Amino acid sequence: MKMDITEDDGVVKVGLVGRLDTPGVDAVEPRFTAAVVPRGARAVVDLSGVEFIGSLGLRMLITIARALSRRNGKMILYAPQLFVAQVLETASLGDIIPVQPDAASAVAAARA
Amino acid sequence: MAGATPQPPDRIALSLAATREGFAGSFDELRRGLDALPLDARARFSAELVFEEVVANLVRHGARPDGQTTLSLDVELRDHDVQLTFQDDGVPFDPRDRPDPAPPRDLEHAETGGRGLMLIRSVSTALEYTRTPEGRNRLTVTVSRDATARVRMSDGARSGA
Q1: Fold of B3-159
Q2: Is the confidence at residue B66, as pLDDT, over 90?
């Protein structure tokens, strides 16, 4: 599991590549959390490179999004692959964390 | 037999220790096995999702404190579906009647966990459980091979052996 973190004009972009299964979550969650939560970032998360997600991956996204919300930040997800999008839909994740189709709409939502 | 066309495998069997380390290594082994099976992308994803959720649940909640819990998995490719049969010697756990978490009302009140069984049900057509006479949990999960199928298992598909 790889993670790339960049920042552009106040929005933190988190690019995830690989599998958000148990080992994948173990590999990225501490650094992901440390990069965005303490500062209450406006974060957009690129899911286009995520080929698999399980319940632990959902838990990680909810936990970080909630921590951001408590610090007046926010998290926007974007561009999930088909099967990953269906897992998000099954869990009704889009009801609590916005999911956008592309980077531009995600950044706009993060700045809104 | 000369001239015989090699047939692709239709089964995978593996066993692992119910630990995080055993989990990581066995997932790689499962994926190599699935690479050899003629599965479409949806069935492949579903099989991996079932494996992830069953094993993660066992490692986190079902393993005995002595660290010696073991799990075996048999994957059988059938004409219209894939059957994954898990057997473990962890604490008794019947997943069939566990309710799904409530839909999240908002981010602040959303449950962070409890979605593993819901995900299994979302990709499977049947879920069977029994506690064997030898004191093992035996869980069989059936996943459709229909590339267009997107199922939500009905209550009627949950059964005991």
Answers
A1: Heat Shock Protein 90 (3.30.565)
A2: no
